[in-house]
Design goal:
seven-stranded antiparallel β-sheet; globular; 453 residues; alpha+beta; 12 helices
Amino acid sequence: MALNAVLPALLTALVFQFPVTLTSDARPVAAVEPEKVPDDVDQDEEKDYWKGVEFGPEDFAEVRRFVKLFYIDPSYDRRMAWVMAANFALHEMDPAREILPRDFLARKKKSRKERKRYGGKVTHLRKSDLFVIHEVGDRDDIKAPTGVLTAKEINRRKEEMRRKQEELEKAFARVPFTEDDFNRVMRFIEDHHAKKNKGEKGKNGDFKPYVAATRGYLASLDPHSTIISAKAWDESTKATTDSSFEGIGAVLTRKGKDTIIETPMEAQPAYKAGLRAGDVIVAVDKKPVSGMALHKVVKLIRGPKGTPVTLTIRRMGLPGDKDFVINRDHIEIKNVQQHMVAHHPDIGYVKITGFVPTTKEALDQAIKSLVEKAKGGRLRGLIVDLRYNSGGLLQESVDVADDFLNKGVIVSVKNPSDRDEVYKATPGSFDFPVVVVVNSSSASAAEILASAI
């Protein structure tokens, strides 16, 4: 399957879209299908974005070829990339499995504290291998906390996870693992699937070990590199463009077993009720939602305009869970929103949610509207809000930056196998002062715009 390179990126991250496109400047996603939606999603079943998409070893090889050509850091650990590719594929099995260094597993089995975690069935592909395939045991070490965690406790848990990861990586450093070893693991997975499904390799259309393997390989590069289907990409872009629905007006995301409020939309019911970014939704109308699929939580929250919904929220710093009663409303989502700053009739404010093909055009219209409303028909200043803007298309951010800059380099794209690409501002720009607001969730194209200005 041929990929079409849509090169551009300031960042090292790569996001591959199948079946047709590779781009290195799209909204960062984790090593799973994106789970971040406004509460307007209405679906009875969790979507399989890879249904009907053929993806096999040839496609995996094509992705690796693109990594070799375009990834900015050629010194990544290829041995660890093969290990992570195998582990991601093994985790898709039922029950899930993993590769572990043989001596590491032997030590863990002797530990009373970790015996349960590492007590699963073990498979040796060859007696001479320094690694084994281990059936994943009870993951007590990653279970979601049931109570309110203090900042100190959160830091302690992070440090413990970091220490465990370092220990495992040190153990793997002594274990040879090559492409041939990876191929043996994939044969093990395929043989197991064939036996389980009586030879029907594609049963239910959900057997896609090479998709998982590709995600693992890319995850070894950095936290932002992954592969998504073209359908998922299109839906992600569509969710950033203008739309409307009836709900509470909040962007939700999934972390582990928790559904989290990522962004309560300004001036909407969730925002007015006092919900904050980072709040964990424990229950909806007293129904527990821990571990529930994101789309199912969304379905519980949605409802007709004017009807109430009760969200039980867990928030760091609160002594216990708290109920918020929110009246649903008709929500208008606009990728670019604008208004004049209160008590300052000549200072404008625009919020950009993401960089999609219509962003520059919508921003130009927004600023034109603000200028018309400004005292004397001229803005004294503009606030550009990029908080929670996870990025999008590079060219859109370049075009927007050019509106604010008269000269200079906007962004340089570093290509290890080709000449660097340099995007420069052209003469002619807005002449009012600009303040750009960002936070830890501003990423990708949003960072490029903020940095350029």
